[in-house]
Design brief:
The structure holds 2 protein chains of 2 kinds. The radius of gyration of chain A is 21 Å and the shape is elongated. By secondary structure, chain A is an alpha+beta fold. Chain A is built from 9 helices and 12 strands. Chain A has a 7-stranded antiparallel beta sheet with strand order 1-2-3-7-6-5-4, with helices on both faces. A 5-stranded antiparallel beta sheet of chain A has the order 8-9-10-12-11. By secondary structure, chain B is of the alpha/beta class. In chain B, about 35% of the residues lie in helices and about 20% in strands. In chain B, the strands form 4 sheets. Chain B has an 8-stranded mixed beta sheet with strand order 6-5-4-9-12-13-1-14, sandwiched between helices. The chains are: A alpha+beta, B alpha/beta. The interface between A and B is large, with 34 and 40 residues.
């Protein structure tokens, strides 16, 4: 009985939550006016950005609310994408983030450029853009972005533990999550050939550049073991053992992780670095 | 072709005869093309009716047009000021492009090589990027002015795209372009409805069921999406704008990326003239861009390509992501859509490398152009392209 009630309640709240996009109203911010809202569901994204929809659909798109906002005399456009998961929202954010003037302003995963503020929070990827790129409009863009974020609950992002390691602190903002060809083309085209012919994978990719280290590392999980083996064979990768590893100058160094994923490094890798990184996993 | 004006002599009945007879094996094509099609099949791509398109004899206007393999690139650093194109500079860039492309003594002579006063001429625009990144008014106005100066009557000029309402949103309105027809395949009425009083899509009247692109991929759309696709299923129908209403088409795309590839001449046509495109992106993105252009209503009517590269993007396309929009300060002009695309691709690629988006060229990015070249639409090999580069200002 309790279980049934719990299921009914959880379904009810899920439905309610799904219907409530975190959009702004005239009361959300002082000075806001003339908000117009358009909603796009599932394939409806084709109607909004046609071919641009592919990338979002690949990550797992649920719903989009587009708001045209006027604030203190300036025009702004806000796109609020609800994705299938926090990881999918982060994935879109990760391949959209580029040359941020500032990051971590209102949330862990956000990025400000002259014309745009983007962020990933919970299952939502948000983009607020202005038309002038002027400092005053950037401030307003941030203000609008914050108003949206305040309407979204925090959800812990389930990223592979290895990326939490402190030696990656300076590089972590470059972390990308891709799980299909479009994400790869938009986020890390350099490995396009590596993944050609594969789908059903999730790859977290991080270029690392510090005085001590310069390599790209990736944690890659395939849906099945056959795919993983085919990936290893196709790219002529040699699986190394963590224990007894003394360092490598090979183009690629690859390990299996205890959770069945591949840990792939491109570039020189020292034993000391690997030891520091794998500490996270223990 | 239009039933009113049908230089190929192919009417509906003949097209269906060809379609019924058609199979890849029965195709009487030159040997290399057979190989191309066989290869396409070998790659386990969904089957399409490209073989039918290739049976239509080419005309003197067919792609790659009057100047195969020739591309003119005109640059002017002063063409964009404060993120806005400068009309007088753009007009001059277009004039120079036309003279360089044709070798004509005057601008009027250059234009009448492609369009005649008695013809209905459509300018295929790209308004997908809204006010941020659509075909610029400065380029469109310059084209219109130069055509008027060459003796083309205003009433014979049409601005068009798939979506009439997106043209309006991007500022292509009757008020801004008095006397110029503005139309699209997908339409809304004044109340914002896609449906007429009988409950039928307005777009239904705009599609020509005699001309279709078939692909073995099912399009399934909900009620919300259907107005943007017009129909589901395995057939994509050509717009009547293209098959019946226009005699000539001038293609005016924008210099944009699409992932590690581009969305320029071929893509603006391939996805801009047919319905039910949503199903094609995943498995036949490049093939559609090339194959749709092989059908006579496109292949034989698009006489000129003018790439608006004043402002474009190097990442985030085909949408308009402000952080990736840049000023290329460039126009690319040519009759050969493949060659123009190839040069545009090089420009976008160079920018992507400069910006650190990618380190090197990737075969995936060029694949659709190489396929289009194999289908006889133009020149994809950069070494064989005659590029005339002019720097003004």
């Amino acid at each position: 009985m309790k279980l049934t009630l719990l299921i009914i309640l959880s379904v009810f709240f899920t439905v309610v939550y799904a219907q409530e996009a975190p959009i702004l109203t005239d009361n959300s911010l002082a000075g806001i006016e003339n908000i117009t809202t358009r909603n796009f569901d599932q394939n409806g994204l084709w109607g909004y950005i046609n071919g641009g929809a592919d990338l979002y659909l690949e990550y797992g798109f649920k719903q989009l609310a587009v708001q045209d906002i006027r604030l203190e005399g300036s025009e702004f456009k806000a796109d609020i994408y609800r994705m299938v998961s926090a990881e999918a929202a982060f994935g879109i954010f990760s391949v959209s983030r580029f040359r941020c003037m500032a990051a971590g302003l209102h949330y862990y995963h956000d990025c400000l450029t002259p014309y745009q503020y983007i962020a990933a929070k919970g299952n939502y990827y948000i983009s607020v853009s202005n038309t002038s790129g002027e400092p005053l409009d950037q401030e307003k863009t941030l203000k609008i972005g914050k108003a949206f974020l305040n309407k979204i609950d925090h959800v812990v992002l389930q990223r592979p533990g290895i990326f939490e390691n402190k030696i990656l602190n300076e590089s972590r903002d470059g972390l990308k999550m891709v799980h299909g060809p479009l994400g790869l083309q938009n986020g890390f085209i350099h490995w396009d050939r590596l993944f050609t012919g594969f789908d059903n994978y999730e790859a977290w990719i991080l270029p690392v550049a510090s005085p001590e280290n310069k390599f790209t590392m990736a944690w890659i999980r395939f849906d099945d073991e056959n795919q993983l083996q085919r990936f290893v064979e196709k790219n002529a990768l040699v699986l190394a053992e963590v224990s007894g590893f003394t360092g490598s100058d090979e183009k690629f160094t690859t390990f299996r992780t205890e959770d069945g994923a591949l840990l792939l490094f491109e570039g020189p890798l020292t034993k000391a670095t690997l030891d520091q990184l794998t500490d996270t996993l223990n | 072709m239009s039933k009113k004006h049908n230089p190929t002599g192919l009417d509906r009945r003949n097209f269906f005869k060809l379609a019924a007879a058609g199979s890849l094996g029965a195709l009487m094509a030159p040997s290399p093309l057979k190989n191309v099609l066989a290869q396409a099949q070998a790659n386990e791509k969904p089957a399409t009716n490209i073989a039918e398109a290739l049976k239509f004899p080419k005309t003197e206007n067919s792609m790659p047009g009057r100047f195969p393999g020739r591309v003119v690139q005109v640059l002017n650093e002063k063409s964009v000021v404060n993120e806005k194109p400068v009309k007088s500079v753009v007009y001059e860039m277009l004039s120079e492009s036309m003279l360089q492309l044709t070798g004509a003594a005057t601008l009027a002579e250059a234009w009448v090589m492609f369009v005649q006063p008695h013809e209905k001429i459509g300018l295929k625009l790209n308004p997908i990027g809204g006010k941020l990144l659509s075909t610029s008014h400065e380029v469109v106005e310059s084209v219109i002015e130069q055509m008027l100066e060459a003796g083309i009557p205003k009433e014979n000029i049409v601005l068009w795209d798939r979506r009439e309402f997106q043209l309006h949103e991007a500022g292509f309105t009757p008020e801004a372009y008095p006397g110029i027809a503005i139309t699209g395949t997908e339409k809304k009425d004044a109340d914002g409805s896609y449906y007429n009083k009988e409950g039928k899509l307005y777009s239904e009247e705009m599609i020509d069921r005699d001309w279709y692109y078939f692909a073995e991929v099912e399009g399934e759309y909900d009620d919300y999406t259907l107005p943007y696709m017009v129909n589901g299923g395995k057939y994509s129908y050509f717009t009547k704008i293209c098959t019946q209403e226009l005699d000539k088409i001038i293609n005016i795309p924008i210099l944009k990326n699409a992932g590690a590839s581009i969305t320029l001449c071929l893509k603006n046509l391939g996805y801009g003239v047919i319905t039910n495109t949503g199903r094609l992106h995943a498995q036949l993105w490049g093939e559609t861009s090339a194959e749709v252009c092989c059908f006579p209503p496109v292949r034989d009517k698009v006489v000129l390509n003018i790439v608006d590269g004043l402002r474009g993007c190097y990442q985030g396309g085909p949408g308009a992501n402000p952080q990736f929009i840049c000023n290329y300060n460039t126009l690319l002009v040519g009759t050969d859509p493949v060659a123009v695309d190839r040069i545009g691709y090089g420009i976008v690629l160079q920018k992507r490398i400069e910006e650190g988006i990618q380190q090197e060229d990737t075969p995936r990015g060029r694949a659709f152009m190489e396929y289009a070249a194999e289908l006889g639409l133009g020149e994809a090999n950069q070494e064989n392209i005659e590029l005339k580069k002019v720097v003004l200002g």
